[in-house]
Amino acid sequence: MEMQEIIALVKETKAFVGNRERAGHVKVKGPADYVTQVDTDIQSFLARELGNRFPGIQFLGEEEGLHEMSGDTYWILDPIDGTTNLIHDYQHSVVSLALYEKGEITLGIVYDPFREDVYHAQKGRGSFLNGTPIHVSDAAALRETIISVGTSPYDRELADENFNRIRRVFDHAQDIRRTGTAALDLAYVACGRTGGFFEPRLSPWDFAAGQLLVKEAGGRVTDFAGEELDFLKRGSVAASNGKIHEELRGLLGRRGK
Ligand code: IPD
After folding, report:
1. Confidence of residue 256 (pLDDT cuts 50, 70, 90)
2. Which of 62, 77, 189, 202 to mutate to test the pocket of ligand 1 (most atoms within 8 A of CB)?
3. Closest atom, ligand 1, to C-alpha of 86
4. Burial class (CB in 10 A: 0-12, 13-18, 19+), 73
5. Of 150, 139, 94, 128, which is closest to residue 216 (Cα–Cα)?
């Protein structure tokens, strides 16, 4: 698989992201859950172009939702991770593309079109930001780092439990951050800007590429119970530089799948 060819294709989505008129075409999928014409434009573009180049590989994209996959190799795409940010021109939204092969993610790209940053990883080959190797932070304890958090905005019934969790982590860490895009949060863990990230009930397209970035940069990613993530289901995600994983997980509790 030619990594540079796939990166070049993903970078072509910048033209769609910059279209403020299309970003204003918003459909409501659920509570605080939106899709814009930019999301659907990018998904159609990448599904078509990847399909032409790799006809044997199936496609799982956010905009058609979770469904049964018959083969054992497929692309997992979030055309815009950070859709609410895009609607408000908050300028923190990314394209997240992963390749699932026989139970694991072997390739991950997170593209930030606002900063022209490409994060990529291939299993066993390390993580990179714009072609330069990246590594997780070397913080040995929460008190030495900042942690980004997700608020599970579509699942408001989780809010009390999750904001209590955020409070507990805030009390132990230097500070917390909220970008509004889980894929970018994972990329920031991978390049050591934050020591960790957590959010309950994410979908595979939110975390598939980013979790590979973190692991290949030397970090650890599990669910809140410390188990491996399942790339066909929603799940809680706890990511860290590895050294602080158990300290972070200890404050999250086992619930919030
Ligand atoms: C969302 C973002 C957000 C997170 C939500 C996700 P979307 O993805 O990653 O940061 O809090 O849980 O669903 O819907 O913008 O692709």
Report:
1. very low
2. 202
3. 15
4. middle
5. 128
Task: Please answer whether residues 201 and 113 qualify as being in contact, where contact means their C-beta atoms are separated by less than 8 angstroms.
Answer: no
Residue that the structure tokens 């018959």 belong to:
70
Q: Would you state the structure tokens that stand for residue 70, as one six-digit string?
A: 């018959």
Angstrom distance (rounded) from CA 230 to CA 171: 30
Ligand 1: residue of 81, 94, 188, 237 to mutate (most ligand atoms within 8 A of CB) is 81
Tell which residue, 164, 192, 190, 194, has the closest CA to residue 178. 194
CA atoms of 161 and 163, how far apart (whole Å): 6
- Ligand 1 pocket check for 82: Cβ under 6 Å: yes
Report pLDDT digits (tens) over 161-179: 999 999 999 999 999 999 9
pTM score, two decimals? Answer: 0.96
Residue 181 beta carbon below 6 angstroms from any ligand 1 atom: yes
Residue 202 CB–ligand 1 contact under 6 Å: yes
- Spatial distance between the Cα atoms of 229 and 222, rounded to a whole number of angstroms: 6
Largest CA distance in the chain: 50
